[in-house]
Amino acid sequence: VQEKLNLLKQNTHNTVNSLLDSMALELASKVDTKIANGEEIGLLEGIPFGIKDVYMVQGTYTTASSDLLKNYKSSYTATAIQKLLDAGAIPLVKENCDSFGHGSSSENTIFGAVKNAINPDLVGGGSSGGSAVNVAKYFTTFSIGGDTGGSIRQPAGYNKVYGLKPTYGRISRYGLMAYASSTDCVGPIAKSIEDIRIVLNIMSGKDVRDQTTFSSEEILEESISNSSTIKTVGYFKNFIESEAISPQIKQDFLATIDKIKAKGIAVKELDFFNADILVSTYYTLAMAETASNLSRLDGTNYGARIEGENLKDTYSITRSEKFSEESKRRIVGGNQVLSQGFSDEIYLKAQNLRDQISTRFSEDFNEVDIILSPVTPANPPKIGDSLNDPLAMYLSDAYTVGFSLGELPTLTIPKGTETGLQITADKKKDEQVLQFANFLN
Ligand code: GLN
């Protein structure tokens, strides 16, 4: 624990906003005492982990990497994090990310851009960039990210580690700062499928504080080492034939498909919605939900407050000065699509498209067990290069957002293409995803 804290201290600007030193050292010494007394310790006891700074941990800063919540301290602990603490895991750090999860590069943060673990000139990916980089660099053994439209899977791919977005509702969102509640998912980033499995099992389960949760059975080690249930794999032809895909990613993906065929698994090409539809549906809904969720940050109850002439002024000055440009863009866009005269045309249309996307997924999963996809159409950009081009940034999410709208379990594995491979199964079949990942190993 001490060693990892030291490493994190040397890299604070890059990846971290606040260390949980005293809590970590106190917990670690308790584990040491247990070991010294010859007591048995649990699987996760003493294992150091990181937490994307959008999770409440009582008494610690939870900033969402934003200026608005720079000095905000949580008054309670998120369910998922509490379960890890109860299992004896040791939280080391709250991790840098795109402010409120708004972004795909971890540059939209007051703590400085997160640098890619493999090439520090490139972005770390986002929004859970700090979490993926910390795992890739062994600063944490695993980290808990948050994925609304790709924020665990894409940085995992950019930094060559594993990252799972579980089925929506498998892990409680209580204590996760809401971005877009209908797709927000809690999930682990780690160095191996086995670590993903262990952490997923601990965090999963029904929670009375999140009515979208369901109870799920433990995924056993034996069940994921046996690939016999996976007979047919599909992939979206239009993803691979799109103009936006880099030739290298396309070539590597198709080579991976050939390898899978050679292992005796049937492969099917599937038709799917194109990137423009997926990205615009996702961003319409995500912006509408974030406009609604962030309306509570008005300088009254939480975080920064800049006093104006009257209350209305206080709201508007606080929000205009303290939200980032990107968050303001989304709040304004979201309020617009929800407003009278626009909502039927835009918001309800996006809801309808989302239903169609879900239906298509259900049909596809009657024919295939697994859907494979590259994580991104292109390699990570250089830091600074795409920050001023929001549309390009949104389009880079083309391959991740569809699975979020479908509420499906999707795992990034660090192979198959330069930025990884996404393995997706039908709802609640997270076990099958891990099983197939093991098979590809
Ligand atoms: N890049 C996507 C967005 O900005 C996804 C972010 C996320 O999953 N939090 O909305």
UniProtKB/TrEMBL annotation:
Residues covered by the Amidase domain: 10-434
Q: Which domain of life is it from?
A: Bacteria
Q: Name one Pfam family in it.
A: Amidase
Q: Which residues form a coiled coil?
A: none
**Recorded E.C. number(s)?**
6.3.5.7
Please state what class of enzyme this protein is: ligase
Q: Which UniProt keywords apply?
A: Ligase, Transferase
InterPro entries named among the record's database cross-references? Amidase, Amidase_CS, Amidase_dom, AS_sf
Q: What would be an example GO MF term here?
A: transferase activity
- PANTHER family attached to this UniProt entry: GLUTAMYL-TRNA(GLN) AMIDOTRANSFERASE SUBUNIT A, MITOCHONDRIAL, TRANSAMIDASE
The family annotation for this protein states: Belongs to the amidase family.
The protein's name in its UniProt record: Asp-tRNA(Asn)/Glu-tRNA(Gln) amidotransferase subunit GatA
Gene name of this polypeptide:
gatA
